[in-house]
Specification:
Strand content: 15-25%
Radius of gyration: 43 Å
Number of strands: 34
Helix content: 25-40%
Shape: elongated
Structural class: alpha+beta
């Protein structure tokens, strides 16, 4: 076995490489051996020499594989916006291009010369590339982006390159070529693309350790952005999706990593109980969208009666609602609980300088504009060189024939003499040319046939040379104003190929065109209240699973519950099927922040013995955190508690002084909570009285004119002075009999599923 090495052999090896024996032995011993690597495919053992070590595998193979996946499979290149398989497909199609359609199966077979993977991966990539409707002209059933239907088999569908692809992608003279994986063919390293295909088509891929996601953008808007980049104007390119919809791009962040785009389906109200979806969000299909709606209905998040899919060329999904649900109420719930609204996180990762880099859309636009300008400049320089060569030879030919230099070679007997004779004949005209006359030029002249010389037309030759000169001057003019030339090139692309590529996705904006965010939808507010909150006051449990106990109000499984105990501690909890809230709580109900309910409280401070009154709102709270409404003391006692929907509604109470207090003449104090200001929940409150109190009860309902008459006016309350000297004192004999309020231990039955909404007051007495 390979790991069974004797000391002598080890030492001899060490001597040859110049390493100390002890060090080498230590290095060999720490290598971790993988026993499973010794097993062959048939279950037998390998020879020891074939053993594979985990350290070696992770050190080399894994990194190589990760790099290969990133660079050669999953991530597009910044220069041409293509992944390797897409680039090879387009290169193969260019090889087969003759103006006619080719079977996709033939294209796949030809592409396998360049792509070292199976035909299935090539076919899938080609279908996805064709569905972008930009580079491939399709014929046959190529699937449906809207419904998610797959394409027909490759042998049944055909394809060819679009005129746009032929114009902007291929330029063999400026293309950098490399050998294919087997060395038999040449393939482009990247295409010299003169348009940011990556931004038009979008891209998505998952590699080892990273991923990429670029959203598609509008064709014409990309060209406008490229022009702005060349003119150094601000760039504001926003995504546009082939499925349409409505997009909130306020957090797009220029397409950089960390941005976010929210896309909603376009939903129309046909009738009171009928909705129609005409456009769907990017990344969804009508099938997945309908499945999400049905799933939300099954979970009782929404209520629908029926859904129909009539999608063909255009999306048409009909949602029928029950008579109890209106379209206006269901619409926000569809956005909250279904794929009618999706959130997209752009993550623009591309290959640049042979390594992955994260880049923004605006930077990609600037890079594409500069790259296109450089490519156009290279093409013009090549064209200029070709025109100059044509002018050079045309001028040489004219002198060679008109000056009869060809006759000088008749006397020469050797090939060297012939070349020398022609060179001598052209010497007087060297200054007329832009470059030196070389031997290759002379050889081309000597290849002219005698028939052409005999029929040479000097006038036509002059016209030809003049045309070359005009073309040369034109190209030089373009080169001198290369930026303007590039702008004109982009405008020509828009003119030739921009028709029918108008924006499909509506941007969420105000009347002035300024981008605005979607209205925030609180899921707990739009979910269908399909559950009921129950309470067992005696045992101290509440939840929607206590079906046999007291019903409080309708709720959903997304709601929060506010609990206020007899000890004056308030807590907000996530609703559950069963949760402990404390025995005989003062208040248990669904908590909704936007309701802004007002709480009235009268309590005795155990330390001072004073009676305090306070009026407060709950405000912001942290779930499951306890909030004391007053300082904790063993002798604290709550005498009165009530809840109102607004600050305009207040309670009137009667404070009964302990009858055993002989020195107190007036035994009853009338108090109205409207006399004090709204305070924070942690505020101590205003002093009501310092005397011992027997009970606090609701005051009898009287007309406002009677309670606030001129004969008995109410003074303004000064909380700092204490309420004991400011409240209205009523002799006991003037008080009409009032029934004692229900204690907290008595159950209150809900009325028409309203529950505690109708229970706005609680009075507390000593048992």
């Amino acid at each position: 076995m390979a790991d069974q090495i004797n000391d002598s052999e080890e030492e001899s090896e060490v001597e040859n490489i110049g390493v100390e024996p002890s060090e080498a032995k230590k290095e060999v011993e720490v290598r971790r051996f993988d026993p499973e690597a010794l097993l062959t495919d048939e279950g037998g053992e390998r020879d020891g020499d074939d053993a594979i070590y985990v350290d070696d595998m992770y050190g080399d193979w894994f990194l190589d594989y990760a790099s290969y996946v990133i660079l050669e499979r999953a991530v597009p290149h910044a220069d041409d916006g293509l992944k390797p398989v897409q680039r090879r497909i387009l290169h193969s199609m260019r090889e087969l291009e003759d103006g006619r359609y080719n079977k996709v199966a033939n294209v796949i077979g030809n592409t396998m010369k360049y792509h070292p993977h199976g035909d299935t991966s090539i076919g899938d990539a080609m279908i996805q590339l064709g569905q972008k409707d930009l580079l491939i002209d399709m014929q046959g059933n190529w699937g449906n982006l809207l419904t998610g239907d797959s394409a027909a088999a490759p042998r049944y569908i055909e394809a060819r390159l679009t005129p746009f692809a032929l114009e902007v992608i291929f330029s063999p003279k400026v293309t950098v070529w490399a050998s294919s994986y087997d060395g038999r063919n040449k393939e482009p390293v990247t295409f010299p693309v003169k348009f940011p295909i990556l931004l038009a088509q979008g891209a998505e891929g998952i590699a080892v350790g990273l991923s990429t996601k670029l959203l598609p953008h509008n064709f014409n808007e990309i060209l406008d952005a490229l022009i702005d980049a060349l003119r150094k104007n601000p760039i504001n390119l926003l995504p546009d999706f082939p499925q349409g919809g409505i997009a909130d791009c306020t957090d797009y962040n220029g397409g950089a990593r960390g941005g976010r785009v929210r896309v909603r389906a376009r939903i129309e109200k046909l009738k009171k109980h009928l909705l129609k979806i005409t456009e769907i969000p990017f990344g969804t299909t009508t099938t997945s969208l309908i499945d999400s709606i049905l799933s939300a209905n099954d979970k009782s998040k929404i209520k629908i009666s029926k859904i129909e899919d009539n999608t063909a060329e255009f999306v048409e999904i009909l949602i029928h609602l029950p008579s109890t649900v209106s379209a206006e109420d269901l619409l926000p719930a569809l956005y909250a609980f279904t794929d009618c609204e999706v959130s997209l996180a752009p993550n623009a990762c591309v290959i640049q300088n042979n390594q992955p880099q994260f880049i923004s859309v605006n930077d990609l636009i600037k890079s594409a504009a500069e790259l296109t300008r450089d490519l156009l400049q290279k093409e013009l320089e090549i064209k200029l060189s070709e025109l100059q060569e044509k002018w050079h030879f045309a001028s040489l030919e004219k002198i060679f024939i008109e000056k009869r230099i060809y006759r000088d070679i008749e006397k020469e007997e050797t090939w060297e003499g012939v070349i020398a004779a022609v060179d001598k004949g052209l010497k007087p005209y060297v200054k007329l040319f832009h470059r030196e006359i070389i031997q290759d030029d002379i050889l081309r002249l000597l290849e002219i046939k005698i028939k052409r010389i005999s029929k040479y037309d000097s006038f036509r030759a002059d016209e030809l040379i003049k045309g070359f000169e005009e073309d040369i001057e034109e190209v030089k003019g373009y080169l001198n104003q290369i930026t303007k030339y590039t702008v004109r090139y982009f405008k020509e692309l828009m003119k030739n190929y921009g028709k029918g590529r108008e924006r499909k996705t509506e941007l969420s904006a105000d009347a002035s065109g300024e981008l605005v965010a979607f209205d925030k939808i609180v899921a707990s507010r739009v979910v269908v209240a399909s559950e009921t909150l129950y309470i067992n006051r005696k045992d101290g449990f509440a939840g929607y699973g206590l079906k046999k106990d007291e019903a409080i109000e309708k709720c959903s499984d997304l709601d929060d519950v506010i609990v206020i105990g007899k000890d004056g501690v308030m807590k907000v909890m996530k609703i559950a099927d069963k949760m402990f809230v404390g025995k005989n709580p003062m208040r248990v109900e669904v908590f909704r922040k936007d309701e802004q309910k007002v709480y009235n409280l009268v309590y005795r401070d155990g330390k001072s013995g004073r009676l305090y009154a306070k009026k407060f709102k709950v405000g912001g709270v942290t779930r499951d955190k306890e909030y004391p409404l007053f300082k904790v003391h063993s002798k604290n006692r709550i005498f009165y508690f009530s809840v109102h929907d607004s600050e305009k509604k207040n309670s009137r109470v009667l404070v009964h002084i302990d009858p055993e207090l002989k020195r107190v003449r007036e035994k009853i104090i009338e108090f109205d909570f409207s006399w004090i200001e709204l305070q924070g929940r942690s505020v101590k409150g205003s002093t009501l009285t310092s005397h011992k109190v027997d009970r606090v009860v609701n005051a009898p309902k009287v007309d406002e004119e009677d309670s606030l008459s001129e004969e008995n006016p109410v003074k303004d309350i000064n909380p700092e002075a204490g309420l004991s000297d400011q409240v209205k004192l009523i002799p006991k004999k003037e008080i009409s009999p009032v029934s004692e309020s229900k204690t907290a231990e008595e159950k209150v039955k809900p009325k028409d599923d309203q529950g505690l909404k109708d229970q706005v007051t609680f009075d507390f007495q000593e048992n």
